[in-house]
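Schema walk-through. Below, the input block comes first and the output block second. Nothing else is stored per chain. Lengths vary across the set, and this one has 224 residues.
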Amino acid sequence: MKKNWKVLITACAGLVILSGSVLAAATGPRIFINNVEFADSAFKLNMDEGTAMVSLRSIVEQFRGKVTYKDNIIYVTMPESSNLSMQVNSLENALEAEFPEEAVQTWIRGVQKRSGAMQYAVLSPDLRQETKQKFEDNFWVTGGSSPHMGKVEQLHTKEVSPDKVQVSFDYPLVVTNETIGAGSASVIVEKIKRESSNYCAISDIGLKDPGDTGIMIGAKKLGK
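--- output ---
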């Protein structure tokens, strides 16, 4: 019986050593796609002076695409989702605002149409990062059945700094073409600088009542 225990202990010790070796070997870069980890070997991952290189075919096929090689040319065919992604990027680029008021008008239109995608398109990079999951959780639909934001008659713009302005406005709360109340908003628009070209985007949204038109993502109560 004592010999059997010795054998068992020795086997367990060997397993611990082996497991430690496996963990040590797995301390290099790891690949996650949509929060799901893939084995490095699946993509033939190789690190070269800080640059990660993977097999083009393996990564494309993982996204259900296809790679063919003919006449010294590589052809990559991606699925419909990739085309839709490019379409969305094109629409977002077209909605980029040159002036602060333009960004706010687009955001207002998005609220009136309950389009989270339109609202998201004119948010700053930081506010996008903060709100993206909420938009996705609501399937990019905001607002509610009633009331909704009516026509905004006038925007009031005040410079906060050379690269930042405050745009404030009042709006009617409308139910079946009847105004039942009013809301007010104060929106901060910043100039976002980048190498290709600058653009204006909303970095802060304050409302007298953030819930007066239903689901309102990215807004906070004025004064907070």
